[in-house]
Amino acid sequence: MDWVIIILIILAFALAFGIGSNDETMANVVGSGSLKLKRAVILGGVLAFLGVIFLSGNVGKTIGASLLGDSVNYNSFMMIAILLSTSIRLIISSKSSVPISTTHSIVGSIFGISFVWAISTGENYFLSINWVKISEVVLGWFISPILGFFGAIAMQLIIKRFMKYRSAGLLEVESTEKYLQYVILTFVCINQISRGGNDSANALGVLIGLMRSDDLTQEVVTILTFIIGLMLMTGLIFVGKNVIKNISTTTGKMRPSDSLSAEVSTSMIMLGATILGLPVSGSHILIFGLIGSARMKGEKPDRKSFRRMVSSWFLTFPVAAILSAVIYSVLLFFF
């Protein structure tokens, strides 16, 4: 096996670890008191692994199809630049307890390498991007958080009516809230499995690309998929707990009935997108869902934490683009 292919596989493993370390899906059950942090990250890791194994195929094919233009020869050095820049961005953000979008990083990296390609070849920059595919991905970035926000508000209204009908006194309210903890766990399991399948496709997409170019066989990709699932699970358990803890406190103390609305909204959007093969940002959907739920009960998110997250989101695209451009330029210069 060529040494470049080996490097790509190692970087795909590193990206999977970074994806897991930046996964805040279990924040809802921690924030609502349904699960302690330690149990939440272990459960989340196992569910994410299952998502990689059973639900990553469709999104992986979308990412594996080149987002670059037809004029561009999607080579191994480009793949290295994308994987390395995205992994660096994810791990740095995870250490600072801020969730970002892996898809944003991937697309930002693609814009970086396409810019270097245009300069190095003298070709038209606008021919370097598959604008139709990129537009579909970017449209999903905007639509999915909006759906998460308003979906959570709609669910909150339904849940409030249910609570009003179900609960006549304080004891019944507490009994209902305790029951809703189990309902939340059901939806968070759906969400975490879907998130594992959707996000891991950013790492699997490279392997699928190598399989299409006959550098890897289907059997090898199947084995590597299993390892990527383990890497994602490891990242979530050992590093992702920092992000989960941070997000669980951002919107204030939430009762299970409050948390449920955001979880139902997010899990349904993530599951649908993953089945359809659409790469979306689970972080953005969940956080906007939490904000929508918090708004319905008259609370505002922690402004300092929210500003940090939004700033990180806006920085993700240009930082990934610059990193990938620099890495790809260095590879071209030396090799």
Structure description:
This protein starts with a helix and ends with a helix. It has one domain. The model has no long low-confidence stretch (mean pLDDT about 85). The longest helix is centred in the middle third of the chain and has 43 residues, at about 170-210. The protein has helices spanning about 5-20, 25-30, 35-55, 55-65, 75-95, 100-120, 130-165, 170-210, 220-240, 240-250, 255-275, 280-295, 305-335. With about 325 residues, the protein is an all-alpha fold.
Q: Give a quick account of the main beta sheet: strands, pairing sense, barrel closure.
A: none
Query: How many whole angstroms does the radius of gyration measure?
Result: 20 Å
**DSSP, total strands:** 0
- Reading the helices and strands in chain order gives HHHHHHHHHHHHH
Mean pLDDT, all residues: 85
Extract low-pLDDT stretches.
none
What brief labels describe this structure?
single chain, 335 residues, mainly alpha, 13 helices, 81% helix
